[in-house]
What does this fold into?
Amino acid sequence: MKKIRFLTIFTYFLFTIITVRLFYLQIIERNYYLEKLSSKNNKIVLEDVSLRGRIYDKNNNLLVDNQLIMTIIYKKEDNIILKDEIKLAYDISKKIELDYHKLTNSYLKDFYLLEHEDIILNRLTDKEKEEYQKRLISNNEYYNLKKSKITNSDLDIYNDSDKKAIYLYYLMNNGYSYMEKIIKENATMEEFMYFSENNDNLHGFNTKYLYGRKYLYGDTFKSILGKVGNIPSENKDYYLAHGYMINDKVGLSNIELVYEDYLKSSKATYLIKNNEKILVKEPDKGKDLKLTIDINLQKMVDNILEEEVRKAKKSYSSKYYNHSYVLISDTYGSILAMSGKEYLNGQIVDVAINNITDTVTAGSVVKGASMLVGYSEGAIKIGEVMLDECIKIKGTPKKCSIYNMGRINDINALAYSSNVYQFKTAIRVGKGKYRYNETLKIDDKAFDIYRDYFKRFGLGDKTGIELLNESMGYKGNNRSPGLLLNFAIGQYDTYTNIQLNQYISTIARGVRYKMHLLDEIMDSNHQTILKIEPEVLNEIGIKDEYLKRVREGLKAVINYGSGKRYTNLKAAGKTGTSESFIDSNHDGKIDKETISTNFVLYYPTINPKVAISINSPDISVPSSNYRYPINQEVIKKITNNIEKFIS
It folds into this structure.
């Protein structure tokens, strides 16, 4: 009897607990669990509207904007089966032009495996199947194993029409199943109209206007602005890890790539609920950029350089010449124009980026820095006179200036570009004793001394420019005495045109400023978020009296020296001619000696506002007494019009 009573009480107590718990779950916590259930069936989806930030020049001229482009898209229908989707790809591929040559061999194998997995399974060994069944290899490893069994002859069953359909199928399935896939941007009007008018019968295919980039000045400066496109396959993991989706558009080169984090737009956030897309968060447009470039100056320089490159290429002795570079800055590191033009198969192509990637033997333009080494190391004194005569080191050819200049002081050594003045200075810096046709011994630490000073001006060092792949130039390893003499006249190490520009700006200003293209970052209301101020990279640590003396020498170059025909402005600058070497028949061997020319200038001489550098490699050959004066002609035309671009 007691047991029955106990069981009755226990059963009553148990049902009471269950009733209370059910009441709690079904009544009190009902909304909570309904939300959890709903969240299991709902998806949060991010969509990129690709409304990237715009790009302006320094004067607020719009360079890069967004424009609507006609796009064909695809969104997988619910419950569509593999066989039907493949058939759909074949049908639709007949209605659209696609560059199916982008189809990779790897994806072709993926498609073959979809259709012929039974054939491939028969090629697996018992051991391979057993390893997979025992989970000794992962699903991914097993899949790649099956792909490895597909031969090129297997893929020969696919003709061009098949490959076009297969590429379309790849585009239809590249990404999450619930996402809209971009099939073709910049569709033709006929394609756009067909897919618009027939979308009800195209099982997921439709049209949409998306944003693409519009370049308001055509090809002017376009190569430096960069490109926008699909995420490169080799960088897919990086972008996916940073919140991008596989179909997002990203900056691929130069400004668009470097400032991707600012230019990219935030994504619109949608809730997918009961197959409906509900906007949760509006997208934000990318930040706008204002560059240091003056687009009208850039256009002028491009036009001048293109015209002169054509003339130079048509001139006598220009067999190996085909390109020149020009860079203009404000002497505080802001780049105002960057131009490069190459003559290729009768056409002029843009190679502006080569200002930072291509290196050249600079020649006499570096003599301002060499003179400062001599002063600072106590090798020469201000106003010192030397005899310009050929130098002869035992076992080597004579080393001379362009002509024997007789007794010459430091100012005229720069004005007339005396090599011998620099040779004798370098010998002193290297603590050597020169005697005609005898062995010359120097302290090879002199190479380090020269390179240390040169680096203070940016020669042989990165300039700070934000673009990728900047070259530091070539640094010679041989430290023979004759090469030190060559170094002092710019005939050993190599430098980029942007380094030459930073070098002459540093002489003009007395400090080295970081080179840059970005001026401001702005919000969508054109309000400044970040302003880039001039940034000093280093003090040069040279006495003002020495800098002033070199500046006087560089003014003499323009007033009456080797640069007197370059400009009518009261400027300071330096010419440079160098021996260079090329692979003339592209067999991997340097086999031809050429002549390259360079020129640097700053203006005005008091409170300089602009620095200009120009580089024309391989303009002529040593056997010719004539070379087209392209540097002179370009600089003359630029400086005749430069006043209206500087304030």
The CA atoms of residues 457 and 503 lie 5 Å apart. The domain at 295-645 is CATH 3.40.710.10 (Beta-lactamase). The chain has 24 helices and 24 strands. Residues 2-28 form the longest helix (27 residues).
